[in-house]
Amino acid sequence: MGFAKRKRRENRVRFDKNEIFQYHKKRNFYSGLIFLGSVFLAILLLTLTTFGILKLEIPGLSEIQKFAFSIGKEIKKPSLIGVFYTTLFGGLFFFYLPIEFLYIRATYSKLDGSDLVFLHILGLLISFTINYFLGRIAARACIKLISPKKFYRMKGFLNRYGVLAIFAFNALPLPAPILSAVLGVIHYKKKVFYPVFVAGQLTQCLVILFFVRHVFTGKFF
Question: What DSSP assignment string belongs to 159-200?
Answer without folding.
Answer: HHHTHHHHHHHHHTTS-HHHHHHHHHHTT--HHHHHHHHHHH
